[in-house]
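Try this one yourself first.
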């Protein structure tokens, strides 16, 4: 999706609400032609000569080529620059339904609008300077948020809290850089002495420490993305039954036949406000069946990526090689052992190496009867929150892109402080500071490349 760095002059249009069964649907347009197009296709119930900005008008939508009425709609015209894109914007609130919405969109396109690319409305908001990159990214998070807390973080970020924080850091760095440049320009003056004396401490307090705190708070991402939780265990241990029990629905197929699940089945679940991305996987065992073997390879991969693992063990069978295999693979991870099938007679301890079961905290349940489920949920919560995930009310949830840029800025600023202490030429100090400032600028979009913009805006859905 190639984007020009400068705002297009053309008018874009897209369906802004999800396609499906709903009461109303919204189609939106942005650009200079908005009002002209609206006038051609919309007749207000009470005729008006001028559409006032930010007002809703009830009226009839027509197809101008046939003069055929399409739907009774509400139309609003929002005049630039007080709009999402800072361009003229028109929104049409019609009845919903795919046929109707696409018909209205077709009419707009036939009247001179162009179909918007995914994220193009938000891209225009960014290019017009109304929002910065962190805010644009937060729009995606806001749409995809999986928990109240994630929603809170994303909405803080949309409002610019994170941008302000980064901008504050950048200004402090620019201030220190200005002193370094003064020392270059006037080597004899006091500027140099001042930089040598206070520089390292200022860099430490004003830049290094706050950036380290921000990087640490990127664990707050779990609130936005959800904890990647993998349910693993030997075949037939009751993994799919556990998934269904936790979700309270028949999401995955359960049968007495070992090797039922072949693919990864993903669902979302919130336990006490903690969002989980739950993944049921193919059970472990040595097999010759090609499909099942591929499933097991996929399970191993998911186990590596997991933030948290639920290791399901069947208590009605002796602990076996496949159980131990999974426990070993989870070494060093955050995991919980779920001892299942406690409604059946216990045979677990007839197996070998049972002490391996004490490597992780454990809970006993019956996925069949639901016994022990509340204890399981509270153990999941304790394991996740006890695992060092930051639950304090920070207003930042840096994503991976932010974290990398922050990490680079941190290195440059540390280097700058070190150079000052080493009495290196002040030009070198200035260079390190400049690189740090640029890294911070990448976060807000001050110094971002087209490539970065492409990768961010391609995550958007159509109409946003
Ligand atoms: N008695 C009893 N049976 C259970 C329990 N949990 C699961 N089962 C039964 O065990 C069998 C296997 O359950 P699944 O949930 O399909 O097991 P799985 O681990 O997903 O199995 P694979 O997908 O083959 O790896 C089914 O017949 C379930 O009804 C339980 O707590 N008690
Ligand atoms: Mg299964």
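Now uncover the answer:
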């Amino acid at each position: 999706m190639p984007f020009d760095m400068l705002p297009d002059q053309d008018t874009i249009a897209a369906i802004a609400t999800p396609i499906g069964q709903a009461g109303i649907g919204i189609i939106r347009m942005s650009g200079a032609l908005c009002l002209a197009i609206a006038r051609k296709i919309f007749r207000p119930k009470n005729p008006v000569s001028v559409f006032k900005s930010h007002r809703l008008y009830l009226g009839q939508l027509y197809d101008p080529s046939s003069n055929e009425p399409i739907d009774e709609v509400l139309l609003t015209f929002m005049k630039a620059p007080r709009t999402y894109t800072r361009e003229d914007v028109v929104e049409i609130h019609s009845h919903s339904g795919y046929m109707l919405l696409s018909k209205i969109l077709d009419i707009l396109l036939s009247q001179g609008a162009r179909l918007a690319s995914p994220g193009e409305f938000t891209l225009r908001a960014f290019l017009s300077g109304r929002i910065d990159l962190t805010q644009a990214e937060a729009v995606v998070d806001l749409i995809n948020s999986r928990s109240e807390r994630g929603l809170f973080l994303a909405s803080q970020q949309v409002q610019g809290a994170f941008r302000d924080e980064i901008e504050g850091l950048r200004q402090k760095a620019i201030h220190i850089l200005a002193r370094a440049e003064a020392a270059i320009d006037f080597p004899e003056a006091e500027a140099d002495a001042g930089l040598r004396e206070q520089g390292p401490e200022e860099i430490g307090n004003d830049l290094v420490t706050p950036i380290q705190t921000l990087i640490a708070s990127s664990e707050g991402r779990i609130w936005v993305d959800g904890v990647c939780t993998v349910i693993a265990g030997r075949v037939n241990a009751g993994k799919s039954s556990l998934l269904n029990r936790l979700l309270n629905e028949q999401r995955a197929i359960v049968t007495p036949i070992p090797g039922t699940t072949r693919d990864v089945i993903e669902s979302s679940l919130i336990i006490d406000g903690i969002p989980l991305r739950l993944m049921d996987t193919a059970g472990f065992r040595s097999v010759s069946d090609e499909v099942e073997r591929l499933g097991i390879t996929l399970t191993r991969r998911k186990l590596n990526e997991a933030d948290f693992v639920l290791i399901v063990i069947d208590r009605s069978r002796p602990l076996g090689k496949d159980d131990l295999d999974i426990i070993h693979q989870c070494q060093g991870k955050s995991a919980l052992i779920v001892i299942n099938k406690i409604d059946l007679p216990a045979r677990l301890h007839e197996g070998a190496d049972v002490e391996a079961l004490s490597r992780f905290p454990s809970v006993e349940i019956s996925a069949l009867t639901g016994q022990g489920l509340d204890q399981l949920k509270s153990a999941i919560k304790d394991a996740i929150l006890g695992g060092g995930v930051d639950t304090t009310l920070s207003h930042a949830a840096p994503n991976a892109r932010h974290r990398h840029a922050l990490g680079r800025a941190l290195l440059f600023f540390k280097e700058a402080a070190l150079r000052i202490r080493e009495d290196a030429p002040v030009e070198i100090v200035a260079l390190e500071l400049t690189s740090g400032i640029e890294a911070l600028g990448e976060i807000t979009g001050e110094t971002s490349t087209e490539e970065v913009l492409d990768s961010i805006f391609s995550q958007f859905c159509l109409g946003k």
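Discussion: The chain has a mean pLDDT of 88. DSSP finds 15 helices and 13 strands in the chain.
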